[in-house]
Amino acid sequence: MIKERSTFVTNELVELLRQLDHDTFLHGMRVGELSYKFSRYLDLTLRQTNQLHFIGYVHDIGKLKIPNSIVTKRGPLTDFEWNLMKNHTIYGHDLLKNLSYHNDILNAVRYHHENIDGTGYEGLYSNEIDFNSKIIRIVDSFDALTHDRSYRKKCSIEISLKKIQKLSGTVYDQDLIKEFTKFICKLY
Ligand SMILES: [Fe+2]
């Protein structure tokens, strides 16, 4: 019987991560590290902490299936390109499913762009979104805001936190934003 993979980084996975463009790869590493620290702060179980660490690394792995010219495009994407880009959550889910990863991981890779008010990629509402996805949603945005993107400059920690807080209860989970705010203030 093949043992279901939880958070093992296999050779196949390393090979896939190596093919990601440099910025996406580094972003994943940072989201993994910050998710790990936030999970520790929240005093989550070791299993969930390890899962979130891992999910951070791989959450955008589906971008491998998006044309590189779109992933690395300097400047805003057209509507057509955005619609293609949005498929990265499903592509990532399918890639990791083929490598037999656990459902908790597959769900977070698929639903890390869902919003509490149902306006995310697949229109899931608050209680339909799993906890891991809600965490990655916040950490992913925070990392994106605090680092330069091809089409905009990074914001300070303070401004980034304010931008995220503004969307508490619509995009992000309210309780988690309260905790994330305390966590970031303690961290910096
Ligand atoms: Fe993503």
TrEMBL record:
Secretion signal span: none
InterPro entries hit by this protein: HD/PDEase_dom, HD_GYP_dom
CDD domains associated with the record: HDc (cd00077)
Residues covered by the HD-GYP domain: 2-188
Pfam families reported in the protein's UniProt record: HD_5 (PF13487)
SMART domains associated with the record: HDc (SM00471)
Protein name: HD-GYP domain-containing protein
